[in-house]
């Protein structure tokens, strides 16, 4: 994790900018130290809106996932992918994203290490499976 | 809580693929409810409408159009959207307004038309009901979101895909006796397990269908109900709950906090416990949802729902029949109508109109309906009145 200093952008733009570099941008509540994803506007513990922005390495472990036979619009060109919820290695937060190249549940045991590699307009937060 | 609130009449279209417009099916269900209550439209002081995808049938601002076609253009209406929980969330607002004394009689109508868009577009439209930035926008469909919940549940508790299949079999068994059900077809565990995977580990028969349909009920205060001389039921508990919109933000993916909160409120208001409920209509958009629901509603301890299903405790003859209507799984899921359709089922059950799917001796019943993966939920408890 490291402290960051960002230009004026919307919260989602900031989240996306960091995700493109493989990082997850987190808001750390100045009042109670609670950690929240950058897109939250208020702390859900003390309701302060004073945050210190901290970037975390986008590596984590698979908490749960699914592989679908019919996908929403924009995902039709992907033969097989998993939608994954993963827990970040460096903090307690879960994030979810798009993991291409997964065609069978056997390819992705729960706990498999993964990392964020990109955020693009078409597929959102893009993940890559790491070797266990 | 102010005035006692009663359900005096109820009506539904058949659920399934319907050819009429969204307004026509709304009016068909409304007429059935009005006739069932023995009132005329002039008795209705306000209209509450729930709908999600009216825009696909070229109609938004639906309430005034429906009121106008019921011959009461001067009666105010309101349209409410809360994804798949729209019907129950809207019912709660109708209930609250009668309880508060603003109106002595209102209509609560839920409606959806979606099948004309086709499976691919419907899948996309439904994904807009998720927390899109984190879910639909990353490729999650609704079967996918519940598939991820199912995988987490099966990895945490002693439950199997076969247990999930038994939920589908039971609901199809019940829905077979419901003339208005979308899919009136008995199925076997093998049918479910051998059906194509939609979103692993969920298969086709673990999933409810996309349905069109409309359901309506007439709500009124106790004085109005008594004067009517018609059979009625009383709303004795009402609760609303909310959960983090995104699955990733839940502390425990195997429970739905909004259900727990809404149920606790409803039990407290009715001064009842789960053991007092004679049957329940729950939100079984996917089989895993029913398994989670029956635990979150307090009927079985966390992690023991699958054992209860294996023992047949949720069948029509079990100690807590779940989804005698066939549920979303068999009866169908026209998402704006579903929560109201559950109340229609309770009304029919408690006024002796449920035919072969009747839960014998039932006097107290519950409805439970949620939006998206449970981001919003409402629970209501009803009592048979003589």
Written account of the structure:
The complex is a heterodimer of chains A (132) and B (386). Chain A is built from one helix and nine strands; from the N terminus they run βαββββββββ. Chain A is mainly beta. Chain A has two domains: 2-57, no CATH class; 59-129, OB fold (Dihydrolipoamide Acetyltransferase, E2P). Chain A has a five-stranded antiparallel beta sheet with strand order 7-6-5-8-9, covered by helices on one side. In chain A, strands 1-4-2-3 form a four-stranded antiparallel beta sheet. Chain A is globular, with a radius of gyration of 15 Å. Chain B is an alpha/beta fold. In chain B, 35% of the residues lie in helices and 18% in strands. Chain B contains 13 helices and eleven strands. Chain B has helices at residues 22-37, 62-69, 86-99, 118-127, 142-156, 161-175, 189-193, 222-228, 257-270, 287-296, 305-310, 327-330, 338-350, and strands at residues 5-12, 46-50, 77-80, 105-112, 197-199, 202-203, 213-221, 233-242, 279-281, 364-371, 376-384. Chain B is globular, with a radius of gyration of 19 Å.
**Biggest sheet details of chain A:** 5 strands, antiparallel
Task: Give the count of structural domains of chain A.
Answer: 2
Order of helices and strands of chain B: EHEHEHEHHHHEEEHEHEHHHHEE
Query: What is the subunit arrangement here?
Result: heterodimer
Structural class of chain A: mainly beta
Can you tell me the CATH class of the domain at 5-116 and 210-228 in chain B? Alpha Beta
Order of the strands making up the biggest sheet of chain A:
7-6-5-8-9
Tell me the radius of gyration of chain B: 19 Å
Which structural class matches the secondary elements of chain B? alpha/beta
Number of helices of chain B: 13
Shape of chain B: globular
Give a count of the beta strands of chain A, DSSP E runs of length 2 or more: 9
Average per-residue pLDDT of chain B, rounded, comes to 97
